[in-house]
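Allow me, if you will, to draw on your knowledge of protein folds for a short while. The matter concerns a single protein, recorded as an amino acid sequence and a row of backbone structure tokens. Kindly check, if you would, that the fold set down in the tokens agrees with what the sequence suggests. You will find the record immediately after this paragraph.
***
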Amino acid sequence: MKRSVVLTALVLAAIAMPSSAAVGQASQGVSLAKPGRDPKQAIDSEYTKKIKEYTTETWFGSPLVDYLPASKTVPTPKVILGDIAGAPGKLPYSKEGL
């Protein structure tokens, strides 16, 4: 019984393990990727300015969250909440229209 459990675990591990070629290709693609926004994507400059103003330390941010993409069809959190999300002194509640 114990031996069959060990053999089953080894077989499952071998099946689940990707080939070294697949791992090499995947890591090569990841190593070339750079975090941040697409330079072709427009940003909401007013909102982005507020993010930088309200962020107390630079290490709190990252290239993934230090801007807000501009959209003609999606309202910003400022439109819904009255200020940007995380604004000092502003804790929104769902009853406020969320």
